[in-house]
Amino acid sequence: MSSGYWNQKAETCSPDERRALQSERLVKTVSHAYNNQKLYRERMDKSGVLPGDIKSTDDLHKLPFVYKTDLRDTYPYGMFAVPMEQIVRVHATSGTTGKPTVIGYTRGDIETWNECMARSLRMGGVTSSDIIHVSYGYGLFTGGLGAHYGCELLGAAVIPVSTGNTSRQLQILEDFNPTVIMCTPSYACLLAENVQKEKIKHSLRAGFFGAEAWTENMRRFIEEQLGIVALDIFGLAEVCGPGVANECECKNGLHIQEDHFYPEIIDPNTGAVLPEGERGELVFSCITKEALPLLRYRTRDLCSLIKGKCSCGRTTIRMEKPAGRSDDMLIIRGVNVFPSQVESVLMKYNDLAPHYLLVVDRVNNTDTLEIQVEMSDTLFSDEVRKIEKVERGIRGDIESTLGLSVKVKLVTPQTIARSEGKAKRVLDKRVIL
Ligand code: DLL
Questions:
Q1: For residue 432, what pLDDT band results from cuts at 50, 70 and 90?
Q2: Distance, CA 381 to ligand 1 centroid (Å)?
C-alpha cells in the first residue's frame, strides 16, 4: 500500500547527515532570531548566551525557552522576525484565556509547511489519485488551509468542506466519493455514528485525524465504524500547523519532520532534557522558519521520542501518540487525572457512544468528579437494571485506573454537546467558583 516518499533524502538520510543539516540550520536560525526578535535577544543576553556559543544541535540546551505567553505579551506581531511586507499569511489560535496567539508566515514558510503536509499525506499512503474531504475549519485555525495546500501540492483532488452542517458532510461523503478524510477524531466519531445510522455508502479508505488527543481505543472505534485506516496527524500553529508530524502506515509513532522542527523532551518542572525514551514535555525549535523562528518552544504536550529506523524505511525521529497536555491535567483531591485516561476506559465498552464529559466540582471543600457518558441506543432501550449494572462496572474500572472515587452517569443518547472541531471534554466548575 505504501506509495514511497515525498522527499526521500530528508526522510531516509543517515542520522549523521541529518544532524549536520540540522546544526547548520540551527546556527543560522539562532542568529536570525537574535538579530531580529527583540524579546529573544534580551532573553539570550540575560542567559549569557551569544549566537556564537551555538555551533551544533549539541549546544541547543544552552538556549532559553520560549513560551506561549511570550507570543501573547508581544501581541499581535511583536515576535515577527521579518518586516510585514515579507509576510504572506497570518493565522491565530483562539486561546481560552486572554489574547489569541498570532502566527505569521513568509512565502518560504508556507512552502515548507505545504511540503511537510504533502510528506505527511504521502507517508499515510495518499497519492494524486485520491480525493480528499477536508473537514478541518478553514480560517484563522491552521487545520483547513494547512491540510488543503498539502493536498494540492501532492496533486490530490481536495474538497474544501470545512466544519459544520453534518448532513451536508454526509451527502458529500456519499456523492463525491472521497477516498480520504481529514477532521478531528471527535468529529470522525460523530460522522461514523451518522454513517451507520443513515446507512451512508462511502468510498473512504483512510483518515488523518488530529488537533486533539485521542486514544488507541478511539482509533479502533473509528476504524471499525467507518471501515478505514485511521492515522494520527500532529501540529501546532506556533510551529506551522498540521504536518509537523504524522503516522506512516506502520502506526508506530508519528514521524517528525525534523529537518525543519527539532524536538526535545524535557522535564516540565525543571526544564532539564530527559534521557532518551522518557515521557515529558515536547519542545520544538523551528530551524528553518523565517517569520517566527521560535527556538525551544514549550508546547505543553506530553509524549516521548522514539529513535531508530521505522519499517517504512524512514529514519526520522518519531513521537509517541501524544497523551495530552500538561495544562489538561486535572488535580482532583490531589490525584492527577488526564481526560485520556478516562477515555481509554470508556472506549472499551460497546454499550457506550464515544461522547463524554468530565464534570469537576467542589462540594463542602471536597473535589468531585462526575463522568457523564452517552449510552448507545441499544443500551438506552434496555432495562434500568442492565443500565445500572453497566454504570457500576464502568465506575469500578475507572476507580481502579485513577485510584480515585468517581460518579458515573450514563446519559441519554445525543445529549452531550457535539463539537465540529476540538472536543470540549471537561467542565471544571471549580474554575468558575
Ligand atoms: O491543532 C493544528 C492541527 C490541525 C493539527 C489539524 C492536526 C490537524 P493548534 O490549534 O495550535 O493547532 O493546537 C495545537 O493541539 O499543542 C496539541 O495539544 C493539540 N494537538 C494537535 N494535534 C494533535 C494530535 C492544531 N494529533 C495543539 N494529538 C497541540 C494530540 C494534538 N494532540
A1: low
A2: 37
Are 373 and 385 contacting, i.e. CB atoms less than 8 angstroms apart?
A: no
Alpha carbon distance 5, 255 (integer Å):
12
Give the SS3 label for residue 78: coil
**Stated pTM of the model:** 0.94
Residue 114, CA distances (Å) to 26, 209, 230, 294 in order: 21, 17, 21, 19
Any residues with CB less than 8 A from the CB of 30 and at least 6 apart, and which?
51, 54, 63, 295
Q: Rounded distance, CA 189 to CA 3, Å?
A: 27
Residue 187 beta carbon below 6 angstroms from any ligand 1 atom: no
Confidence class of residue 1 from pLDDT cuts 50, 70 and 90?
Answer: very low
Is the CB–ligand 1 distance for residue 207 below 6 Å? no
The one-letter code for the residue type at 75 is Y
pLDDT at position 245 is: 98
| Closest atom of ligand 1 relative to the 325 alpha carbon | 18
CA 387 – ligand 1 centroid, Å: 35
**C-alpha cell recorded at residue 280:** 515529558
Residues 6+ apart with CB under 8 A from 259: 10, 18, 21, 22, 25, 287, 288
Alpha-carbon distance of 99 to 79, in angstroms, equals 15
Q: Which atom of ligand 1 is nearest to the CA of 245?
A: 26
Helix (H) or strand (E) run with residue 318 in it: strand 318-319
> What is the Cα–Cα distance from 380 to 413, expressed in whole angstroms?
7
CB proximity list for 411: less than 8 A, separation 6 or greater = 372, 373, 374, 375
CA distance 150 to 147: 5
Name residue, grid cell 506581531. Answer: 77
Mean pLDDT in residue range 149-173: 97
Assess whether the C-beta atom of 236 lies below 6 angstroms from ligand 1: yes
Cα–Cα distance list, 373 to 50, 341, 345, 407, 413 (Å): 53, 14, 12, 11, 9
Residue nearest to atom 13 of ligand 1 (CA): 236
Looking at ligand 1, which residue's alpha carbon is closest to its atom 27? 236
pLDDT in tens, 31-88: 999 999 999 999 999 999 999 999 999 999 999 999 999 999 999 999 999 999 999 9
Cβ of 125 less than 6 Å from ligand 1? no
Q: Average pLDDT for residues 142-156, to the nearest whole number? A: 98
